[in-house]
Amino acid sequence: MPQKIHIKRQNFISLRSRLSARLISQQCRVFFHEAKEEAVKQGVKDIGAAFLRLETFRDFENLEADFGFFTDRPMRANGPFHAGSLPAADYLQASWHGPYDRLRDVHVIAIQWANYMKYTIDSTRDEKGLHFGCLLNIFKVCDLTEPDSSKWETDILFRLRRRQRGEAPAPFVNSLPPPVPVESA
Length: 185
What we know:
Layout: E1 3-7, E2 10-19, H1 24-41, E3 47-59, E4 62-71, E5 81-86, E6 89-97, H2 103-117, E7 123-126, E8 129-141, E9 153-159
Antiparallel strand pairs: 1-6, 2-4, 2-5, 3-4, 3-8, 6-9, 7-8, 8-9
């Protein structure tokens, strides 16, 4: 079940890309490798989990995302690399064990649960699409280190917006298409 958690400030280094959802796996392989090399080049000894941070979602053919790693200290932005820190905040977390083909469904279930719990997901919408305050896929065990997809572990986190006193919760609607039914064998 999803749960509300608090995350402390996290330093990171990443590369940003505009891409189609169908290219995420290929981009992960390339960009995770490059981001890790840059962190090592900058002297990081303790490189944390790989993450994909979805910045903007227009549709499945038009995404903007960061591919990176959490680091044990602040990084420098060099060339195409972004460096910064995620601020401490409350997040909605859902965990998934297994191959990535059902991650989209886990996102939708987490959104539905947030709406049920009357949490407000930090996001805005404009003519360019849906912009997330912070939507992360954190790859705790992934294909970078484990070939057996049944052992992969991914945490999905949506930053929650802190509501002002008296402000009503804002349900998160029209975000992603509903889950695709699982085909039985």
